[in-house]
Amino acid sequence: MSDTKDLHEENMDSQQEFNQDNNAENVENVTAEPTAEELLAEEKDRYIRLFAEFENYKKRTAKEKMDFFQYANQDMMISMLDVLDDFERALKEIAKFGSEADLKGVELIYQKFKSKLSEKGLRAMDTKAGDDFDVDYHEAITQIPAPSEDLKGKIVDLIETGYTLNEKVIRFAKVVTGN
User: Fold this and answer.
1) Which of 58, 121, 146, 176 has a 20 to 30 A CA-CA distance from 129?
2) What is the pLDDT of residues 83-140, one digit of tens each?
3) Per-residue pLDDT band at 53 (split at 50, 70, 90)
4) What are the residues whose beta carbons fall under 8 Å from the beta carbon of 152, sequence distance 6 or more?
């Protein structure tokens, strides 16, 4: 009987400890409610973050819009490069076999066409023999033995002019490199 009484007392003690812990938690929960100042500070923080996020959104969409307008005519410019190349070839042939009047006429049209394209942001790359080969701007068509030691790994000949549109490469310069 004494064992049962001891067991019963232990259970009672455990139950009392549990109730005391529960009461302490309830008291803590009651006092843990945020004050008006804390709620105001939390809402102000949320507002500031939301405002900053919206400002970033406006900047990002404005940049995307500018990029779109800047490169909207890229396909048209790429197709005009073939016409520009044909003009250059025609000028070379007329200079060899044509009359001076024909050369001046075609050259005038070529310069006007080229200036209109440059107004829209098209620029020819300045690539010449002896320049360092740069994969960001040049496309190696072939490699040949370097005519001199100082041309190893450099551009030996320019096959086709490269072009940029507003600082973006739209056609790589096709070159021959020395090895």
Assistant:
1) 121
2) 999 999 999 999 998 888 989 999 999 999 999 999 989 999 999 988 999 999 999 9
3) very high
4) 146, 178, 179
